[in-house]
Amino acid sequence: MKKLTGIFSALLVSYNEDGSINEKGLRQIIRYNIDKMKVDGLYVGGSTGENFMLSTKEKKEIFRIAKDEAKDQVGLIAQVGSVNLHEAIELGKYATELGYDCLSAVTPFYYKFSFAEIKHYYDKIIAETGNNMIVYSIPFLTGVNMGISQFGELYQNPKILGVKFTAGDFYLLERLKKSYPDRLIWAGFDEMMLPAVSLGVDGAIGSTFNVNGIRARQIFNLTKAGKLEEALEIQHVTNDLIEGILANGLYLTIKELLKLEGVDAGFCREPMTAKATEEQLSVAKKLKEKYLS
Ligand code: HMN
């Protein structure tokens, strides 16, 4: 198994204007992440891949292409979570057969599942696939908030390696690290990387690393080395960039930034706005000139 710590890009997917997968563009995004952003790995099938708007067949196709392009060059995590447990298991088996190093699954969403149901969901995916698992916790999108004791119950399953923690609750983050020191934590908000790393996270998984991966690594390494002032300088610049990206449309703008680097990052998938307006393009150009040249 490849190392799963460090800087992992939440992989963007290139779509054609009709919403179909642009395989050539997807391969270019993967190459850019590995060759230029020098990431330690890829988180495939996450929010950033616009995954929750795709069919099972399309999700599998993305897992296949990503593994075929990345081979064993970097760590690969497959996000297989779905409100349809049968789909999550099918995807988990598929990604495991392809050789993904680990699975991840978003907490089941939309319905108000009980904690017992959530635990059953993870235990069943793990039992059916035999692979390791990273819990994907993103309460602001799923509405699922788990506390320290609930994580402890999930961690009774030894195949759960830890959590991708996309939240700003640093008290919970600190408590998790202290209570379960053998479990890993990946920071999920790129704009809060410094405080998360200072509290001891083991890795970070982010959308903006597709274009800002070098700075992300600097923040990670400097913070780990205790050089907080230097790390903060880079976090400030990073957050100016992220603020601009968020205000202009998150995935759409990162795709435009990639296109300005010669990567065919394509369109977004409807119902997200598929194509950037002239105004959004011009903002992306300014962001590129100011922060990525
Ligand atoms: C994924 O599932 O694709 C990512 O792991 C999600 C990641 O945590 C990103 N969150 C979302 O896009 C909702 C962040 O990188 C986020 O985009 C960034 O911090 C800007 O807010």
From TrEMBL:
Pathway of action: Amino-sugar metabolism; N-acetylneuraminate degradation; D-fructose 6-phosphate from N-acetylneuraminate: step 1/5
Any one Gene Ontology molecular-function term assigned to this protein's record: N-acetylneuraminate lyase activity
EC number: 4.1.3.3
Active site: Y136 (proton donor), K164 (schiff-base intermediate with substrate)
Tree of life domain: Bacteria
Cell location: Cytoplasm
Keywords of the record: Carbohydrate metabolism, Cytoplasm, Lyase, Schiff base
Reactions that this protein is recorded to catalyse: aceneuramate = aldehydo-N-acetyl-D-mannosamine + pyruvate
Main location per the UniProt record: cytoplasm
Uppermost EC category: lyase
Entry binding sites for aceneuramate: S47, T48, T166, G188, D190, E191, S207
Cross-referenced SUPFAM superfamilies: Aldolase (SSF51569)
Protein family according to the UniProt entry: Belongs to the DapA family. NanA subfamily.
Its biological purpose: Catalyzes the reversible aldol cleavage of N-acetylneuraminic acid (sialic acid; Neu5Ac) to form pyruvate and N-acetylmannosamine (ManNAc) via a Schiff base intermediate.
Stored PANTHER family: N-ACETYLNEURAMINATE LYASE
Oligomer status and interactors: Homotetramer.
Entry protein name: N-acetylneuraminate lyase
Native species: Seminibacterium arietis
Originating gene: nanA
